[in-house]
Predict the 3D structure of the following.
Amino acid sequence: MIPEPTGSPRSEPFAKIDPKFQMTVRDHVHRSLRAAILAGRFATGEKVNERSLAEQFGVSTTPIKEALRQLETEGLVEALPRRGVIIRFDMGWAEEMILARAALESMIAHLAAKRIGKPAGAELTAIADLMAKATTSADADSLISLNEQFHEHIHRSSRCSYLAKLIERQQFYDASIRRVIHMDPAERQKALEEHTAIAKAIVTGDADLAERQMRNHVVRSGETYLNIVFGSKKDIGRE
Amino acid sequence: MIPEPTGSPRSEPFAKIDPKFQMTVRDHVHRSLRAAILAGRFATGEKVNERSLAEQFGVSTTPIKEALRQLETEGLVEALPRRGVIIRFDMGWAEEMILARAALESMIAHLAAKRIGKPAGAELTAIADLMAKATTSADADSLISLNEQFHEHIHRSSRCSYLAKLIERQQFYDASIRRVIHMDPAERQKALEEHTAIAKAIVTGDADLAERQMRNHVVRSGETYLNIVFGSKKDIGRE
DNA sequence: GTACAGCATCTGATATACCAGATTTCAGAT
DNA sequence: ATCTGAAATCTGGTATATCAGATGCTGTAC
């Protein structure tokens, strides 16, 4: 901190660092395991051994246990008391995670349409406009970043922090896969149309329309993801 | 186990006990804390101390930490690294939990309507019929039990185990509160009508109708719960 | 009276020890 | 050869110890 000569407090000297950014071993383990599971680097039903994981990470079993507890609550592993934890993730699980995200995102879009104000609405439209520009010109990275901003803005507009947190936990395709997805011009175009329509519905306060369009968007882009990662054409939630 | 004279294996001698039923200290702590939080026995923002909890439960801090990790992932507490965990639950949080459950249950009802077969459909109708009888005659306990059966049957019919698991985590009014809710004849009648309508929509395969009705049912009964627990009239998701 | 450095204390994060339930192995009986 | 059950082993659950960051307190300087 730079010393302040006068006693008068400056309004916003430096942003306080968010304690959440601090990295602990258990978070590192949690993220690593989570990413590994979602990337399919474990077989469904495979047993994981705490001591062996601890050795691989070079830490004790304590943070491993805590990370496994988090994964258990997330539904990515199953704990059989006194018997160990087994991996629970396959294509079916991924489909259902997408459906869950669709259900929650559409609910939050519904509420955002009801609750968004004039200024926030204008910001959302602005983000959508930037996305339109980035779709044809810019690189995938800025598109990914705008994508995040777009959804996060909707979350904030809904004023639902619990729902937003739940959705975050559902968010499981990582940046590298997103980049692959946004490589395809057809996909970029489709996503843009959907985003534009969602933004319009929310800004005009059409909650039911916003909800439907958000749901279709999440399900459709989820299908794209599944096709890339699991490599088989699939309609989510059919039959 | 009763000894078997012949070498021939009996088909289904006794059901294997589900390992999940085994109780560990961390599960006990998790459930107790969860119930205490949902019952409002902690203030929002209140700090909880691991050592003090360990002392109160008469156990070491290890299972406490694991239970707190689960609560953290559930969104009921927030962990600030190296600083401790604070309670995150109030009426607003409860509202959002109800909305989340509404979103997920309606999604699962939608899928159940698409996927339910003839026999399972008949069973669902049968459960609804039993509910009709129990509404006027029987005690609250059997109504509560039928209620559970009803929703669980829908979950199974949807063939979505991940979604069902997610919903279970959202399930937060316990048996005692349910009993209070089901005491009121008007509430019983309203719930019956909703259940009947949901069953009909699912059995006839009207997925969109089932979805809408499930959502209304969860939100409306959630409002009843909120009025009882937090004691103020409130429309969820309005403004 | 106020501000701040330095010290004492509290408390979460991690490592380690130990126990008991679960699993596997293997010798002896049939 | 197969079954059984006791012993060895593995592994998760819990308890305890240790470390370091966060917090609180106090006495001194101004």
